[in-house]
Amino acid sequence: MAATVARTVLKPRQVGARLMATGTSSSQRTALYELHKNHGAKFGPFAGWDMPLVYADQGALDSHLHTRKHASIFDVSHMLQTRIVGKDRHRFLEHLVVADLKELPVGGATLSLFTNPSGGIEDDTIITQQRDSLYVVSNAGCADKDLAHLLKHAKIFQNEGADVEVLKIDDHSLIALQGPASQKVLEQLAAVDLSQMPFMTGQFIDIKGVPCHVARSGYTGEDGFELSIPTGEVVSITQALLENAQVKLAGLGARDSLRLEAGLCLYGSDIDSTTTPMEANLVWTVGKRRRAEGGFIGADVILEQIANKGGARRRVGLVIEGAPARAHAKVLSAEGEEIGEITSGVPAPSLGKNIAMAYVKRGFNKKDTALKVQVRNRVQNATVVKMPFVPAGYHKI
Amino acid sequence: MALRILSKSFLSQRLATPIRHYATKKYTSSHEWIEINKDVATIGITDYAQNALGDVVYVEVPEVGARVEFDETVGVVESVKSTSDIYSPLTGEITAANSDVVKNTKLINRSPEKDGWLFKVKFEDQEEVNALLDEADYKKLTESDH
């Protein structure tokens, strides 16, 4: 007689919230799906895609550590890539994001935010200044929303006579090569000296003779490159990269613990449409000229908060004693008053400590503030720390 | 006559032989294994469970001496990405808890059904034991999970 309780010990209380997010009704697959399968990937749904979580050769923990020591390849082809062209492309995009796009040099890349009328964040994005276009990469979970937003406003601008067009890049697949060995690994296939390529720049480079866009950026806190490769060649280039013994495939499991250690936000968890740049501690993304001039959606709210140090809460980093604290765990003041909530939490593989991002009431966000976190029926000590939790390994010239 | 006496004594000898208790292994649909030895059950999570969880980084086991009810949360096993509650499949008293596995969480991945045991319960209700899945039923469950 079988046990009647069907609940499984494996129905995890919290899998990374975004990992279980569903997008479209039928799952999409990237051009690397078969390659992932051949490497024994365990797949999971993410933003409407079947993405590899982990591979047969190592667990998520070892994959994380391997990335910090050597190099890993992440399939990020599910992210949205767009190109914006036309004489008025800067004026157009500056209406939607907080970046100063006029000051950004050709080849320069910057993290920016799409904003909404309440001053909240609709997505974060990396924008690269190309010679006659803007190259925009944004989150898979916001792909439909971002594209609709861009197209809607492009139409408005076009109707007013502006010369601008938004083009979705459908024929290139994006992979991220991350880790201290990345430069040497890529140089083997690119036949160029990458030592003089600065962090947060992008350029067109031939990889194995194939023209690709290479950005020195990533989501791990390590040196690395995000490669936009013609989809017909992404499998062969990925395989060629994997021929280097230092390179292993890595999935979303390691990706999340790496980015959290690096203090990088996950849209939908640590930032969302209700969090303002001031609250999210992302005011640095608002260009100096933009702070003076405004001219982006929600500027009135955002600039007022910057001027008056407004916003009711602040995003902080926490180190927590005891059991790992996960998203939605309550944060309490030292006296036990509820003052906030954790948005992402993980037992940090590189630190052997439990780390988390949380929003706390303004005033409780100073470095070294002693707080408490509730995990199940226990209250555990926590301390506010500056992020990143792990020192960055970005390339310095 | 001698034969009958002989056979009688033979019979009584057989009855006097202690009945061997073989440890029985049972399972729950929540992927715990239960090894029954007389009235003490040793409990852990199955190989299927540790594989699905990934690298275990944190473990909590119940306190020795605690009384637990069937289905009560008695511990937790966490991987980098997820938290899984451990439920007691039997009502009774915790007679032992594996402190090794708390210090060396990798034991659960390496040896989930032996060195990675979590706790022992002195149980009271044989009916609860009978209600657990046997190996064949558990295998069927894990196979259908694909």
Give an account of the 3D structure.
The complex is a heterodimer of chains A (397) and B (146). Chain A is of the alpha+beta class and 397 residues long. Helices cover 22% and strands 31% of the residues of chain A. Chain A contains nine helices and 19 strands. Chain A has helices at 33-38, 60-69, 89-96, 143-159, 182-190, 231-242, 252-261, 288-293, 299-308; strands at residues 42-46, 49-54, 71-75, 80-85, 109-115, 121-130, 133-138, 165-168, 172-178, 202-207, 210-215, 224-230, 247-250, 313-320, 330-333, 338-348, 353-361, 370-375, 378-385. In chain A, the strands form four sheets. In chain A, strands 10-11-12-9-3-13 form a six-stranded mixed sheet, sandwiched between helices. In chain A, strands 14-17-16-15-18-19 form a six-stranded antiparallel beta barrel. In chain A, strands 5-6-7-4-8 form a five-stranded antiparallel sheet, covered by helices on one side. The model of chain A is unreliable at 1-24 (pLDDT under 50). Chain B has 146 residues and is α+β, with helices and mostly antiparallel strands. Chain B is built from six helices and nine strands; from the N terminus they run αβββαβββββααβαα. Chain B has helices at 2-16, 47-53, 99-103, 106-110, 126-130, 135-144, and strands spanning 24-27, 32-37, 40-45, 56-60, 67-68, 73-79, 83-87, 92-97, 119-123. Chain B has a six-stranded antiparallel sheet with strand order 1-2-3-9-8-5. Chain B has a three-stranded antiparallel sheet with strand order 4-6-7. The longest helix of chain B is centred in the first third of the chain and has 15 residues, at 2-16. In chain B, 41% of the residues are buried. The model of chain B is unreliable at 1-14 (pLDDT under 50). Chain A binds chain B through residues 1-16, 19, 54, 59-62, 64, 253, 256-257, 323-324, 326, 346-347, 349, 376, and chain B through 28-32, 45, 49, 52-55, 57-58, 60, 71, 76-87, 89, 109, 130-133, 137. Chain B: The modification N6-lipoyllysine is found at residue 81. Chain B: Residues 40-122 form the Lipoyl-binding domain. Chain B: The H protein shuttles the methylamine group of glycine from the P protein to the T protein. Chain B: The glycine cleavage system is composed of four proteins: P, T, L and H.
